[in-house]
Amino acid sequence: MLSEDCGVPHISTGDILRAAVAEGTDLGQRAQHYMDAGELVPDELILDLIRDRLGQADVTSGWILDGFPRNVPQAEFLSQLLKDMGQPADFVINLDVADEVIVGRLLNRGRQDDQEAVIRNRLEVYRQQTEPLIEFYRSRQQLVSIDGNQTMETVRASLQQVISG
Ligand code: AMP
After folding, report:
1. How remote is the C-alpha of 96 from its chain's centroid?
2. Which of 19, 28, 69, 116 is within CB 3.0–4.6 Å of 75 for a Cys-Cys bond?
3. Per residue in 41-81, pLDDT tens?
């Protein structure tokens, strides 16, 4: 929805990895067992993927990164890459959702890695590796937090408000 509202591509590292798994590429084969376990795929695979994707022609007027960065080294890599590209990020958006709401939504979604034990592990990995990014971006005055415990339409409206400034 946000991609439609902004008219820029939605770049989801999870979608790219799932497509690589489905096609059986080298990347897909190396990534699959991390994804099935709810662990992060190693940075050496993800960073090349992002560098390639942000080098493509359709991102010259903007992009939405979804699911990246997931840890501090990825965030530092992204800052440097965007500096080199001369294309700074306007916002970093934290969608704040209670754990039990997340578990309920994902069990309904039913993706291959949406079994309860894997979801709980993803939340644990989030606490350890991704949550520190809130402070990382807050201290750089880039963070916007949105209450994600709401309907899709309400969250969409909150996002529209943020981007229209
Ligand atoms: P997602 O579609 O964002 O929920 O991601 C699904 C899975 O892909 C995650 O559980 C990770 O195994 C992997 N993944 C996606 N994005 C990243 C990333 N930025 N860094 C490491 N692993 C990732």
Report:
1. 13
2. 69
3. 999 999 999 999 999 999 999 999 999 999 999 999 999 99
What does the alpha-carbon distance between residue 1 and residue 157 come to, in Å, rounded to a whole number?
Answer: 10
How would DSSP label each residue in 72-89? HHHHHHHHHHHHHHT---
Q: 10, 15, 16, 17: which to mutate for ligand 1, most atoms within 8 A of CB?
A: 17
Q: Given pLDDT bands bounded at 50, 70 and 90, which one contains residue 115?
A: very high
The CATH number of the domain where 49 resides is what? Answer: 3.40.50.300
Query: What predicted TM-score, i.e. pTM, was given to this entire model?
Result: 0.96
The total domain count for the chain is 1
List ligand 1's pocket residues with C-beta within 6 A. 12-14, 17, 34-35, 38-41, 46, 67-68, 70, 74, 122
Domain that residue 48 falls in? 2-164
User: Residue 125, Cα to own-chain centre: how many angstroms?
Assistant: 14
Radius of gyration of the chain (CA): 16
Q: Give the residue, by CA position, lying nearest to ligand 1 atom 12.
A: 35
The structure tokens 């400034």 sit at 165
